[in-house]
Design a protein that fits this description.
This protein is α/β, with parallel strands linked by helices. 36% of the residues lie in helices and 14% in strands. The chain contains eleven helices and ten strands. The protein is globular, with a radius of gyration of 19 Å.
Length: 318
């Protein structure tokens, strides 16, 4: 496993991290989730990502229960807030009240004294960004979080947050968690260059496009049994979407001979392709079986030759 600094921060993350979206706490049995987390740890993964909104806090409980048995200084734990955890006023967003309350609630569910990386799950148009940044800095000074970042903020929104921190002499955010993969490349042109200049690292989710880029879904054929696409607990962002259209699946199949040429699985090729960008600190994979982790961590350290990158561009362009 190779490791990279998180933007300008001194903290380093494994190039492959393990997430818990749609899996742990609901979609995958707890004992299997524990096996996945421990397998990842044993293979050098030190970055574990979750969020309060994942299965309404259940993912945090599962992840925390397993990680509490490991030395605290050997892993980096990230969680997020924004989405509502209950009904009623002040139940969502990035207000000082919601940030303080949800940080404490996450710490209780995780069973941890502090969170390594606390991220704003979305932009809150109803709360001044100054209030959000000041509330996060308060958590840093209180020792409840070490670093903070955002998820799915635009380049302009991230810059606004950085400007607030700079004007107050704060260290500021160090991470952004966007969706990024071979089929979703919206961050490349504006967001990545801006973040690279500002020292904000990317910890990307859905690097395998929810499994589509592994090549297991074939055009004109029903999804195989046991895959996410046929699991109603995990396919809410996949079934019936463009990712499962034949035109997309045909494009993905054109990557298969390229992967074979360099001796990689299609999943490994997809992960190594993302890690070609120095601003990407870690790719956050999901896993319902330990075997998936063993395969995916092998993408760390793989350098794709320029001619292979060109072939990938050609395959994706059709």
């Amino acid at each position: 496993m190779q490791y990279r600094r998180l933007g300008r921060a001194g903290m380093v993350l494994s190039e492959v991290g393990l997430g818990s979206w749609l899996t742990y706490g609901g979609g995958v049995a707890e004992d299997t989730a524990a096996q996945c987390i421990l397998t990842a740890y044993d293979h050098g993964v030190n970055f574990f990502d979750t969020a309060n909104a994942y299965i309404r806090g259940e993912a945090e409980k599962v992840v925390g229960k397993v990680l509490r048995e490991l030395p605290r200084d050997t892993f980096v734990l990230a969680t997020k807030l924004y989405f509502p955890m209950r009904e009623g006023a002040n139940a969502s967003g990035l207000s000082r009240k919601h940030i303080r309350e949800q940080c404490d609630a996450s710490l209780r569910r995780l069973g941890m004294d502090y969170i390594d990386l606390y991220q704003c799950h979305r932009w809150d148009a109803n709360t001044p960004v100054e209030e959000t940044i000041l509330a996060l800095e308060d958590l840093v000074r209180a020792g409840k979080i070490l670093y903070y970042g955002v998820s799915e903020w635009s380049a302009l929104q991230i810059q606004q947050g950085l400007n607030v921190a700079q004007s107050r002499g704060f260290y500021g955010m160090v991470s952004n968690q966007p969706c990024y993969n071979m089929l979703a490349r919206g961050i490349e042109h504006e967001l990545v260059p801006m973040c690279e200049k500002a020292g904000v690292g990317q910890v990307v989710y859905s690097p395998l496009a929810q499994g589509v880029l592994t090549g297991k879904y074939l055009p004109g054929q029903a999804p195989p049994e046991g895959t996410r696409a046929v699991d109603p607990k995990q396919n809410i962002f996949l079934a019936g979407r463009e990712l499962m259209h034949d035109t997309t699946l045909e494009k993905v199949q054109r990557l298969k001979p390229i992967a074979e040429k360099v001796g990689l699985t299609m999943g490994q090729l997809a992960l190594a392709w993302i890690l070609r960008l120095p601003n990407i600190t870690s790719v956050i994979i999901g896993a319902s079986r330990p075997e998936q982790i063993k395969e995916n961590v092998a993408a760390s350290g793989v350098i794709l030759p320029s001619e292979i990158l060109e072939e990938i561009e050609t395959a994706l362009g059709g």
